[in-house]
DNA sequence: AAGTGGTCTAGACCACCAT
DNA sequence: TGGTGGTCTAGACCACTTA
């Protein structure tokens, strides 16, 4: 049943909240509570309508909003499932990969270079929204395109949400980070922010990307948010000259 | 009335097209035909439902799709209008600006540097999807952020769609390009593709952006599509070091 | 006061998927 | 074959804008 929105609450009249939004928020609450885990089948629209005492159309609209937010995936004939990046036949939401390309080629599987547990620097703390000195895991990896090194990623992961991430990264060497968080920690990445800067190749770029001294590179700071709005990991990425970042705005 | 989808067409059974999509496409056709121009009020949902002999809910869904595509803007109590970038109280769709910033400051009004009519080079032709030698207009402008030059744009416009664009640019010096195409040519920009590369500052960047020799810059190739799917203009943009490109993926 | 979009209801039929 | 989501209908009330 829907919470009656606190009849005692005085600030009600103006921004009357649609029922479908209330239902959507309760469904998110149930995902966050662990009642449903990634890959689980959500009750059908008819079942949800009965459970929340709303019409099917309203339950439907709530589910549509969840789809927009990358929380669930609908499949005709099968049902609605909590989004998951795990393999198998079903239920992958939007992909955040595919961001870098070169000569219109997608980047290939990553090679892992380094793993470390550590504590948050001031910059880490700022990016992750945690305190300086909090535990973090650090991972470095390299991705290629057309058989040539293309981008190098320094990934920093929140230690409180993802204990022993470096060790698990080292053991599993996942090709998809979103999949890794999904399987290992039941965390669902639903949003990614990126900022792209111009920079010059540093020592590491020269070593691993084959950049020359004085050559320009793309520097990307990328933050990944989970369903709860927390930054789970951020990455400092360098892409060698020739590799590009692409985006479409509608 | 809706065209009955060619009853004689044999390829019907599998991909049955939803009615609301057919309605949406016909509404787009009417916009492209000039029946409605940017800023015009579209018939109400009830009127559309009657006109197309569908239920209000179906007409509504068609209009919702048009909103998603940046073609129309809905305002409760007022009605639905064709999207427009013209000033006034109403009807602005998504903004494609806001792409560049610095120290979290938006870029300011543009300064125009150069205007020219010309013919398409091979690169122009490729970007605009026209023949080499076709007429194009070229405009160069500079945008600042925090009082300092930040990005320089070379804009190339299709001459067949936008005759005398350089001359009009010179006369009007519009702050918004989308607004310019809207007012001058009744063209509605609904989608923008961008590719971001790393490059080194060239002579022009040193002159106008204050870049030093060997300093990195962002190079962006940006194509603007109108409602009909044509590339109306593309830009070659350089942003000096420190200015960044930002994007959120949901 | 009239008309609009925003929300909601309570049904219905269909295409698709798993069993 | 039964259940699912995808589509569609024909109403209804409300909040908001405009005249």
From TrEMBL, chains A, B:
Record SUPFAM superfamilies: Chorismate lyase-like (SSF64288), Winged helix' DNA-binding domain (SSF46785)
Region forming the signal peptide: none
Pfam families xrefs: GntR, UTRA
A biological process from GO: negative regulation of DNA-templated transcription
GO molecular function, one term: DNA-binding transcription factor activity
Ranges of residues in domain HTH gntR-type: 17-85
CDD domains reported for this sequence: WHTH_GntR
InterPro entries: Bact_HTH_transcr_reg, Chorismate_lyase_/UTRA_dom_sf, Tscrpt_reg_HTH_GntR, UTRA, WH-like_DNA-bd_sf, WH_DNA-bd_sf
Swiss-Prot/TrEMBL keywords: DNA-binding, Transcription, Transcription regulation
Name of the featured protein: GntR family transcriptional regulator
Species in which this protein is naturally found: Sodalis ligni
